[in-house]
Amino acid sequence: ANGNFLPAIRPIGNDLNLILDASRSVLSGGSVYAGANKYPPLATLLFIPLTFLQGDAPFQVLTLLNYLCYAFITLIFPIRLSNRRDLPSWAWFLAAAGLYSYGLLFEIERGQFNLIAVACAFSAILIFRRMPRQRWLAFVLLTIAIQLKLYPAVFVFFFVDDWKQWKINLTRWTILGLANIFMLFILGVDTALHYIRAMTSVVASLGINDWPVSHSVASFLDFSNYYMGINPVVLRALQIILQVLILSITAYILRNAWLRNRLTDAHLLLACTLTALTIPALSNDYTLSYLVGPAIYLFMNLESNHSVDGKDFPVIPVALITLCLAGTYFSYFQKPIPLQNHFPALLTMLICTAVLSAREWRAYKIT
Questions:
Q1: What would you report as the CA-atom Rg of the chain, rounded to the nearest whole angstrom?
Q2: How far apart are CA 350 and CA 268, in angstroms?
Q3: Is the Cβ–Cβ distance between 251 and 353 less than 8 Å?
Q4: Which residue, 112, 129, 312, 344, has most beta carbons within 10 Å?
Q5: How many CA atoms lie within 13 A of 176 on its CB side?
C-alpha cells in the first residue's frame, strides 16, 4: 500500500520474477533470454539458488539482502573508507531518512538488486585498500558487481596503488576488462551475442516518453521531448553534448585526484556514482537508493577539512548538493512536472562536486 508514491506493479517483485524465470529456464536446459530477461548471463546464474525457495521466500531474502546492503553502503562503507571511529549525527539522520526514501522503496518493490551490485563494488574497494593479501577477492567481487549491473565498472578507478604507476594501473584495468568480457560468454557465444544486441538496441533508442522514472541522459531527453517536441537530430546532439559534459566533469575530478595521488578521493567517489546513474541508456529511479552513501563520505571529508576553521566552508555547493540529494528521497508523484525527472538534480550535484574538487585543488597548490 503506497498511495501516490511508487509506480507499483502487481505482483510485487516484478524484476526479481523476470530473472528467476530466466534462471529456471537455464536449469531446464533452455535459453537465458527465453522470457523478458535483460541482465548479463552470469547474473542469471547467480540467482539460481533463489529458485529453490518456495512462495514469497525469494522476495523476502532479496529484501533482507537489500536492507543489509543499504546499511553497508550508507553507514559502514563511509566510516571504514575514512578511517573514522564513528559517524556524525547528520550521517545517521540521512541514512535513517533514506529508509523511507523513494529510491529504496522502489528498489524493494521491484525486487531489484542495484544495492547488492554496488555493495559488492564498495566491498571490493575496501578489501583492495585494507587487505592486500585478499585482493583476488576484491577482483572477484568487482567482477560480480559488473556482471550484475555493468555500471559498477566505473569504480575501477579506486583500484590503484599509486596514480604515478600508470603502466601497472592500465594493466590491472585491462585484465579486469577482459575478464568481464569473457564472463559474457560464460553460457556460449550465441547467448553473449544476444545480450550484446539487446544492449545495443537500448543504447541506440531515443524517442518520446511521458514516464519520468529514469534519470539517465537519454531518458531525460525522452521525457523532455514528450512536452517540447524536439527535432530528432537536435535530440541526438543534446544527448551527446550532455554525456560528454558528464564525462568531462568526471575526468576533471579524476585529474585532480591523480595529481594529488588521492587513492580514495571523496569527490571522485561521488562523481563516479553520479556518472553511473546518468550515463547508462536506462537508469530507473530505484538506482537512487545507493546515492546517499557516497554523499555522506563527501560530507565527512568536507567536515574533516573544515573542522578547525569554518570561515571558508563552501556553503553554496554543499547546500545545493544537500537540496538535490533530499529531492531524490521523494517520488515524482509529489513534484511538479519540471522537477519530476531527477537528471537535472544529479547533474547539479556533479557540477557542485567539481566545484568542491576545484576548491580543494587550489588550496593544495597554495600550500
A1: 20
A2: 10
A3: no
A4: 112
A5: 31
Neighbours of 29 (CB within 10 A): 6
Q: d(Cα 293, Cα 123) in Å, to the nearest integer? A: 13
Which residues, in sequence order, are CB contacts of 124 under 8 Å at separation 6+? Answer: 137, 138, 139, 140, 141, 142, 145, 155, 159
Q: How many CB atoms lie within 10 A of CB 135?
A: 15
Q: What is the mean pLDDT of residues 20-45?
A: 87
Q: φ and ψ at 260, to 5 degrees?
A: -95, 0
User: What is the pTM assigned to this prediction?
Assistant: 0.93
Question: Torsion angle, CA of 83/121/344/322, rounded to 10 degrees?
Answer: -20
Residues 105 and 286: their CA atoms lie apart, in Å, by 8
Please list, in sequence order, all residues whose beta carbon lies within 8 angstroms of the beta carbon of residue 315, skipping any fewer than 6 positions away. none
Residue 22 CA to residue 187 CA, distance in Å, equals 13
How many Cβ atoms are within 10 Å of 8's Cβ, its own excluded? 14
| Three-state DSSP state, 284 | strand
Half-sphere exposure (Cβ direction) of 1: Cα atoms closer than 13 Å? 0
Greater confidence, 304 or 247?
247
> Could you read off the pLDDT of 306-337 as tens digits, one per residue?
654 556 788 899 999 999 999 999 999 889 98
Q: What angle do CA 264, 265, 269 make, to 5 degrees?
A: 90
Range from 160-169, 201-210, 327-336 carrying the lowest mean pLDDT: 201-210
As given in the structure block, the three cell numbers for residue 73 are: 553502503
Cβ-in-10-Å burial (0-12, 13-18, 19+) of 344 comes to: middle
3-state secondary structure of 214: strand
DSSP letter (8 states) at residue 308? S
CB 220 within 8 A of CB 341: yes
Buried b (16+ CB within 10 A) or exposed e, 306-318: eeeeeeeebeebb
What nine digits make up the cell of 210?
Answer: 511521458
Instruction: Find the DSSP H helices in 260-336.
Output: 266-278, 292-305, 315-327
Rounded distance between C-alpha atoms, residue 139 and residue 159, angstroms: 9
